[in-house]
């Protein structure tokens, strides 16, 4: 669990930045070169590369170099881990909401019976 917790921390930290989220969003449409990914951002390429390295370190993307072009692709395995964690949280909160709704309904029924 600690291993997954550390990985989830890294992934959520990576996704906290709007530039990195935009890169992930763009890669959702298919692989792209780093120069193509950097075009919409007003920053120097070395600064942009820091974002790419962090995404690569967290395992959210993979890069491959062919000649002088480095191409990035999404790594879906880590997104499944995030989706699993979010799904578990949703299940917990839906159960809590259902228990609260049952409590409120039962309380209202008792109040109506006593009147």
What does this structure look like?
The chain has five helices and three strands; from the N terminus they run ααβααββα. With 115 residues, it is an alpha+beta fold. Strand 2 and strand 3 (69-74) form a beta hairpin. The chain starts with a helix and ends with a helix. The model has no long low-confidence stretch (mean pLDDT 93).
Biggest sheet strand order reads: 1-3-2
State the shape: elongated
Q: What's the tally of helices?
A: 5
Tell me the strand percentage band: 5-15%
Given as residue ranges, the uncertain stretches (5+ residues, pLDDT < 50) are: none
Quaternary arrangement of the chains shown?
single chain
Query: H/E series, N to C?
Result: HHEHHEEH
Q: Ends: how far apart?
A: 52 Å
The residue-averaged pLDDT reads: 93
Number of strands: 3
Level of helix content?
A: over 70%
Specify the biggest β-sheet. Answer: 3 strands, antiparallel
Instruction: Please compute the radius of gyration using only Cα atoms.
Output: 22 Å
Which structural class is indicated by helix and strand composition? alpha+beta
Offer a quick outline of the entry.
This protein is α+β, with helices and mostly antiparallel strands and 115 residues long. The protein contains five helices and three strands, in the order H-H-E-H-H-E-E-H.
């Amino acid at each position: 669990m600690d291993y997954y917790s550390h990985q989830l921390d890294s992934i959520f930290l990576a996704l906290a930045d709007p530039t990195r989220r935009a890169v992930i969003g763009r890669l959702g449409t298919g692989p792209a070169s780093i120069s193509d990914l950097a075009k919409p951002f007003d920053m120097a390429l070395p600064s942009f590369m820091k974002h790419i390295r962090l995404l690569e370190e967290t395992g959210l993307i993979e890069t491959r170099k062919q000649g002088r072009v480095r191409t990035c692709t999404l790594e879906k395995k880590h997104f499944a881990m995030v989706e699993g964690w979010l799904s578990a949280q949703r299940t917990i909160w839906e159960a809590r909401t259902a228990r609260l709704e049952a409590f409120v309904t039962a309380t209202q029924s008792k109040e109506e019976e006593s009147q």
